[in-house]
Q: What sequence folds into this?
């Protein structure tokens, strides 16, 4: 019987854990620093085991890894290299849903020498986005075509009927990850020219995105799209862009939250402070300042603007205790958002992923193909975010556990031997792309 170790019992772990508990030849250990979260996933299942694990306790972590056939790491990305190094020491395969960091990439040669697999980027974004992109690109190349342009947008959002707060957003995964994504610069290619968007201007570059059957979104650039010219093997492309989808108003609000300094993760001593003076100091204002009025003047907007209503709704103009003896502006923002921006029982989230390919062929024809995935959470059941991250990770883990990949080292799902079986499994689970091709 195989033994799967899942490290991290957060928002997206449920579908993956249940997938393997349904397999009679797999034992599953779920490890988390919060024991109740791990136990909620394994329950009383005879092949399930929940353990308390602090990632800072490397001896305990290594001991759990040593007893596993495969490790799936669903912890914040900064911990993946720690897990990977211990997997390397014990010669254990590893699957993660996170981007390949430089620290992870540096382990490629060692992993190949050890004959093990570190398979990353097998969630939603990164993950399903790569797989469907490569399926489309390989399909174009198989017909002798060249990819002239690739454009992709992805968003995890409240379903339209659950869009009930002024931010147009609710959290189905780590708030910190969502917020920190707004501190990255963006790079993309347009008409063969590199475009660089500094992090401070990221939310100033939103555009309206229309997807049939849904209200209009706003979309903004996501990280460094230029790297995908190499990742996807399309150096001939003159346009490549990857972006994030949100409901209207998000970009305007997050821009000002960043300008205020609330995305700063630097900790300070909160002794003797309450919320209002701390927020005033973060903005560079006197402790007793009227935050709404002072910020309106600084930003040159009406004090009654909807933007300020959103910040007021979140509680950023109110006084109150700070959550702890020390922390950062980002810590406080995360706490306030978690208090007000979670899904209510019965509400659905929604994942939207859309790729657009432009291609030219040897006979002189050209075409544009749009591939769209729209998925909704199950009221009272799994969120769409947990399904679209957890199910591809489970399919990837199954491939590795069964020894169906004939390569080793640090891998991503951009080759047919990886993306083919995973997309087929997702289709059987109802995660299906709708394609439309138009001749140009």
A:
């Amino acid at each position: 019987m195989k033994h799967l170790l899942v490290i991290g019992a957060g928002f997206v772990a449920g579908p993956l854990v249940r997938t393997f508990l349904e397999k009679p030849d797999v034992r599953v250990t779920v490890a988390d620093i919060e024991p109740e979260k791990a136990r909620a996933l394994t329950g009383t299942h005879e092949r399930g085991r929940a353990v308390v694990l602090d990632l800072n306790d490397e001896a305990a972590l290594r001991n759990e890894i040593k007893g596993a056939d495969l490790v799936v790491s669903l912890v914040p990305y900064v911990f993946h290299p720690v897990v990977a190094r211990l997997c390397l020491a014990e010669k254990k395969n590893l699957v993660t849903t996170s981007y390949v960091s430089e620290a992870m990439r540096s382990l490629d040669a060692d992993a190949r020498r050890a004959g093990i697999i570190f398979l990353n980027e097998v969630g939603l974004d990164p993950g399903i986005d790569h797989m469907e992109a490569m399926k489309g690109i390989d399909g174009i190349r198989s017909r002798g075509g060249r990819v002239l342009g690739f454009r992709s947008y992805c968003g995890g959002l409240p379903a339209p009927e659950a869009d009930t707060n002024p931010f147009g957003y609710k959290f189905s995964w780590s708030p910190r990850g969502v917020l920190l994504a707004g501190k990255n610069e963006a790079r993309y290619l347009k008409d063969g020219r590199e475009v660089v968007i500094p992090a401070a201007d990221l939310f100033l570059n939103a555009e309206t995105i229309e997807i049939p059957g849904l209200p209009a979104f706003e979309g903004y650039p996501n990280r460094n799209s230029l790297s995908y010219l190499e990742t996807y093997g399309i150096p001939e492309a003159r346009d490549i862009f990857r972006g994030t989808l949100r409901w209207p108003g998000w970009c305007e609000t997050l821009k000002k939250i960043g300008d205020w300094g609330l995305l700063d993760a630097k900790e300070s001593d909160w002794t003797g402070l309450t919320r209002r003076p701390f927020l005033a100091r973060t903005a560079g204002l006197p402790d007793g300042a009227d935050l709404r009025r002072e910020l309106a003047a600084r930003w040159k907007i009406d004090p009654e603007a909807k933007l300020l209503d959103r910040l007021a709704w979140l509680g950023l103009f109110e006084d109150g205790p700070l959550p702890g003896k020390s922390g950062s502006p980002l810590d406080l923002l995360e706490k306030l958002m978690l208090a007000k921006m979670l899904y209510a029982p019965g509400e659905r989230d929604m994942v939207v992923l859309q790729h657009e390919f432009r291609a030219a062929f040897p006979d002189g024809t050209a075409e544009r193909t749009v591939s769209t995935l729209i998925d909704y959470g199950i009221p009272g059941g799994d969120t769409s975010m947990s399904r679209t991250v957890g199910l591809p990770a489970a399919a990837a883990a199954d491939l590795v556990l069964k020894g169906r990949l004939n390569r080793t080292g640090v891998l991503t799902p951009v080759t047919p031997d990886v993306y083919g079986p995973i997309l087929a499994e997702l289709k059987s689970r109802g995660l299906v792309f709708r394609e439309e091709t138009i001749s140009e």
About this structure: Residues 253 and 282 are 17 Å apart (CA to CA).
